[in-house]
Amino acid sequence: MAVLMGWIFILFGVIFFFGGGGWSVISALFASRLASTQLMPQLVFASVGFAIWLLGMILVAIGLIGGKKKKILAKKIFETGVTAEATITFIEKNYGKLVNHKPVYSFVEYKYRDSGATEHLGSKSDVSSDLAVRLDLHVGGKVRIKYLKKNPGQNVLILPDPEAGKGHRH
After folding, report:
1. pTM exceeds 0.70, yes or no
2. Is there a single domain that holds both residue 86 and residue 149?
3. Residue 158's pLDDT is what?
4. Range of the domain at 139
5. Residue 111 within any structural domain of the chain
6. To which H or E segment does residue 155 belong?
7. Cα–Cα distance between 90 and 149 in angstroms, integer?
8. Domain end call among 23, 40, 70
9. Does the residue 165 lie in any domain?
10. In 71-128, beta strands by DSSP E
11. pLDDT means per 10 residues in the chain (170 residues)?
12. Is 141 found in the same domain as 102?
């Protein structure tokens, strides 16, 4: 989400900068006449645009770094984690992510016990709604998860692909 917000800020920053006279400020800067009071409105708009653009760049960087860390952690859990059975406690379409005004993802919440019998909650907010229907995911249903032995609260939901192993139909 930070990446999307970042791109929106970058777009608005560029619009503010150039729409508010950013070229005039740049040319005045190179001509050493930036102190002119005639350029004050353009300087204000260009400064605001630059600040919004910079904030957008920071949000994109944070989002990309955070996403990469999540992927690395998920891969580690998938490769080295302990497999457990979890019980679905909640499932609902995720209206925060819409395509053509329709939710394409479902939010799935589940509980599981680690090897020490401590109960944990986990969730995944971007399960394909089509996949959730094909797998008949429902409250009380069982799913597989993997968790880190050293930190059982860190987990990933493992859902089978019902299309795996089937040949392509033409």
Report:
1. no
2. yes
3. 93
4. 81-158
5. yes
6. strand 155-158
7. 25
8. 70
9. no
10. 82-93, 98-99, 102-103, 105-113, 119-128
11. 85 84 72 65 81 92 87 90 96 79 85 94 89 91 95 93 60
12. yes
